[in-house]
Amino acid sequence: MPATPRAATPALPRARAALLRTLETLPHPATLAEVAAATGLHPNTVREHAEALARDGLVRRSRTEPSGRGRPAWRYEPVAASPDAETTEYLGLAGSLAAFISRTSDSPREDAIAAGAEWGHTLARGRDNEAPGEASARTRVLTLLDDLGFAPEAEGSHSTVRLTRCPLLETAEQYPDVVCGVHLGLVRGALQEYGADATGTELVAFAEPGACLLDLPATASDGDR
What we know:
Elements: H1 14-25, E1 30-31, H2 32-39, H3 43-55, E2 59-63, E3 74-78, H4 85-104, H5 108-126, H6 137-148, E4 152-154, E5 160-163, H7 169-174, H8 176-193, E6 202-208, E7 211-215
Antiparallel strand pairs: 1-3, 2-3, 4-5, 5-7, 6-7
């Protein structure tokens, strides 16, 4: 399951932000060895970033239970940020709209996808001057998703993208057809606005621990500018 984006997180170096995202996806407080195994980083590098995050108040550390000789290891877990008033109001509105569509629509998912596509067109059109014309539709959509708080992780030209955060996680858990449908429509609409074919673009919600999976097939970027 993807994580909920935190409100008002200070700007962090890329590596430190990536480590924080990893901690947010783990199901329990993790030792340095466990975090190193999850990230592929050297334990000393993990310790440096984890301690810096702890000093910034973004990570809490606690000792493991004593076991045999030696000092017990530290465990690290992210500190949940409290949403501000504006975020709370936005989440409340989103939840109300999702509930309304789910209750009144004969085809909640299809209507949600259509609404999301309109949103995607609008967002992409409003950002048209912010991305170079040579950038691919796929790259521009991934940038859009990152700015919206989905923290996408893409591996080279592979079609599958991991969305490791969800701006509306709690609402998505209640109304997955509506919320995830809106997000799928958003991607399709943005791709089309950037001149790409969105055929075959699909979103698998809660596909793996810590992520939803977005499939952006090769045909989706054939319209690159």
